[in-house]
Write a sequence for this structure.
């Protein structure tokens, strides 16, 4: 059993506001469970009141879409938040984070590779991008205030934002949950003010500059769909934020509060970005927005960009720290969060001071859907097949005696399904660095966010359903309602 040398119970202050969270990826016993599903609303909303969503919405207009088509794509792409809500239930049922739950789908050893690629690497890349966006806003803010920029000032801004992020990330779950409410209220008020000023300049009769055929509009819409879907699909470890909830917490409550909390701000801000794209150049909105905002509000706007990047990175750093433990790093969570912060700062410094690495990060993330989509789909199917009856103590065992050791640490149904789903996605992808043959044949249409998850889900369902899962019911039926996991009148699931 590998619990990172923690005692079976760490006491009531193990997850308390203002105290550094003691636990990492180890099992959270029932005696330490607390909270309600409704707290997930603010936990998911705060990091998604994000300036990056405005940029993503503006990208829909840059792709050549009209307003209503762009809005339809934004809503459809953000529907993937429902999948994140579904996988989040496993945290409450198992008392472990997503990086541990996925051992059931891939095996102890194979899951280390899966977590390293599907969670840690992509989240650290997102940390670098968010930190870069926040730093650029900080640079613009200093220039607006008449402070001359030099290398020292720029480095100080990057380090200051990163230190603030790492500090909250180190304090952990309870502190993040508490602060999320205040972040949500503050950011909402600021973005409402921003929307008020932007909407006064929107061209509701906007027509894309070049007349496009229906085929090219469809191709642009599918590319836009993947761009939008990449945001929710980057959250496969949703269980990280539910593992402290009591085991009998309403599954429907977890799904709805998680999905709605993230969906609402992501859609509204992306739509605002699309509308803004009819009035300003969204290639550099940090600068172009100055033309439509009151002079007194422009520095507020820049500060909000910094704050929203910070709030998103707090969540990202927290999960990437847990993921690093899941990869096999034998260090406490506070250490792994700090390591991730140093890596993100290094990426940001390289991006802003040395190279055009920021573009390389964006290109990398454009390919991330090929892995994230299938991984998330496998997670959803597995949780339904075993009815979320995950045993957290068994999942925490990384030894060859673990019931999730399978075939020398590999669960082949998961590995094969992820591989086939990723290949299917790559065949259909249309990214800046790679265009799959099917996407090329379809004149640029990108179906990777659909084909990858569907193929992975179908293959995993077929392979895993035929094998009895250790710790599951003898008969694996795809009927979560029958198991009571989503039925409020059924008895609580036992770990």
């Amino acid at each position: 059993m590998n619990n990172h040398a923690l005692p079976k119970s760490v006491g009531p202050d193990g997850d308390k506001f203002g105290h550094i969270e003691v636990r990492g990826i180890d099992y959270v016993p029932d005696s330490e469970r607390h909270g309600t599903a409704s707290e997930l609303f603010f936990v998911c909303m705060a990091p998604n009141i994000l300036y990056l969503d405005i940029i993503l919405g503006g990208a829909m207009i840059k792709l050549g879409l009209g307003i209503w088509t762009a809005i339809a794509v934004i809503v459809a792409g953000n529907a993937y938040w429902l999948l994140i809500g579904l996988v989040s239930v496993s945290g409450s049922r198992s008392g472990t984070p997503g990086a541990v739950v996925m051992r059931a789908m891939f095996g102890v050893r194979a899951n280390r590779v899966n977590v390293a690629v599907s969670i840690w690497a992509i989240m650290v890349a997102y940390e670098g991008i968010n930190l870069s966006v926040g730093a650029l806003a900080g640079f613009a803010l200093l220039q607006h205030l008449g402070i001359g920029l030099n290398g020292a000032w720029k480095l100080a801004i990057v380090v200051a934002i990163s230190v603030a992020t790492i500090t909250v990330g180190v304090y952990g779950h309870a502190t993040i949950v508490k602060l999320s409410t205040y972040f949500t209220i503050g950011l909402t008020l600021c973005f409402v003010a921003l929307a008020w000023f932007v909407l006064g300049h929107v061209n509701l009769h906007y027509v894309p500059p070049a007349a496009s055929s229906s085929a090219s509009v469809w191709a642009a819409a599918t590319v836009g769909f993947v761009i939008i879907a990449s945001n929710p699909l980057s959250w496969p470890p949703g269980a990280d934020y539910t593992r402290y909830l009591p085991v009998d917490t309403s599954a429907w409550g977890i799904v709805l509060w998680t999905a709605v909390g993230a969906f609402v701000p992501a859609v509204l801000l992306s739509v605002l970005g699309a509308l803004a794209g009819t009035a300003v150049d969204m290639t550099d909105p940090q600068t172009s927005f100055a033309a439509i905002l009151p002079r007194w509000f422009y520095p507020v706007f820049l500060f909000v960009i910094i704050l929203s990047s910070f709030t998103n990175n707090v969540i990202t750093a927290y999960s990437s720290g847990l993921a690093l433990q899941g990869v096999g790093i034998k260090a406490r969570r506070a250490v792994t969060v700090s390591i991730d912060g140093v890596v993100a700062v290094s990426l940001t410094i390289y991006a802003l001071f040395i190279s055009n690495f920021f573009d390389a990060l964006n290109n990398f993330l454009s390919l991330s859907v090929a892995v994230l989509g299938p991984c998330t789909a496998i997670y959803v199917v597995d949780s339904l097949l075993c009815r979320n009856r995950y045993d957290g103590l068994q999942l925490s065992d990384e030894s060859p005696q673990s019931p999730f050791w399978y075939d020398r640490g590999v669960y082949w149904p998961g590995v094969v399904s992820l591989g086939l789903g990723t290949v299917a996605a790559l065949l259909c992808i249309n990214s800046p660095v790679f265009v799959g043959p099917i996407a090329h044949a379809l004149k640029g249409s990108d179906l990777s966010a659909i084909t990858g998850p569907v193929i992975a889900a179908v293959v995993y369902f077929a392979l895993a359903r035929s094998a009895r899962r250790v710790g599951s019911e003898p008969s694996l039926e795809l009927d979560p309602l029958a198991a009571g996991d989503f039925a409020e009148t059924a008895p609580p699931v036992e770990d």
